Amino acid sequence: MTSKKIGDVLLDVKNISLRFGGVQALTDISFDVREHEIRAIIGPNGAGKSSMLNCINGVYTPREGTITFCGKTFSHMNPRQVAEMGVARTFQNLALFKGMSVIDNIMTGRNLKIKSNLLLQALRWGPAGREEIAHRAAVERIIDFLEIQAYRKIPVGQLPYGLQKRVDLGRALAMGPRMLLLDEPMAGMNVEEKQDMCRFILDVNDEFGTTIVLIEHDMGVVMDISDRVVVLDYGKKIGDGAPDEVQHSEEVIRAYLGTAA
Ligand SMILES: Nc1ncnc2c1ncn2[C@@H]1O[C@H](COP(=O)(O)OP(=O)(O)OP(=O)(O)O)[C@@H](O)[C@H]1O
User: In this prediction, does ipTM exceed 0.90?
Assistant: First the structure.
């Protein structure tokens, strides 16, 4: 789609299988994500998309298979370790503190980067004070980038849903990720909010060089912004390729696109 430079493989998912009791959520899934790519994961409800994302960011431990990120292979990893390796994530059902302001919510994304101890932070003394100033500046840059300056001090719970999703993106960006996992970033949005979110995703990818893996149900969005698409159905991979290829695959049309609303 664009002339941007796609790099080497950043994430390599190999032969991942995952079960929940009697439910086979994922069966032998393999795909890769290249540096600077926007990679979509699509499929009908219950296809295994969120489970796949949860395997990548260490929330679920797959029964079989490996995940290699930045050349490091793991089969067991907790979410904190994954975050420390540079993977951030947004959630389908927002993971924000509704009573806290926009700025403080985004600041929580900096937690992993804060080095000074709690007492020094509380006193805002010496290095802790300087560190806090640097983190606040980073948060302000994200607020400007996402064009939410007017809402900085407002409790997130008072904002419309589309803006809350933008704050959730800001929280993830505050982690300074190399790869961003977005779980249905446009869900529940109106057309205008979707257009805004698309623009921000493309800008994050372009300006920060962040690699993006997203789950999305809106086919128009997926086809517009993705470089490559993985298609899951009943936990199996049934398609993988450029949006055009995937769109014209008979198996994909039968399983998903043909039945899309
Ligand atoms: N924590 C869990 N415990 C038991 N079963 C689960 C759990 N999470 C997911 N499943 C099951 O695994 C399968 C895949 O679910 P998953 O949520 O990954 O699909 P999805 O493609 O993300 O669906 P949706 O588009 O509806 O969000 C489904 O059959 C689901 O019921």
Answer: yes
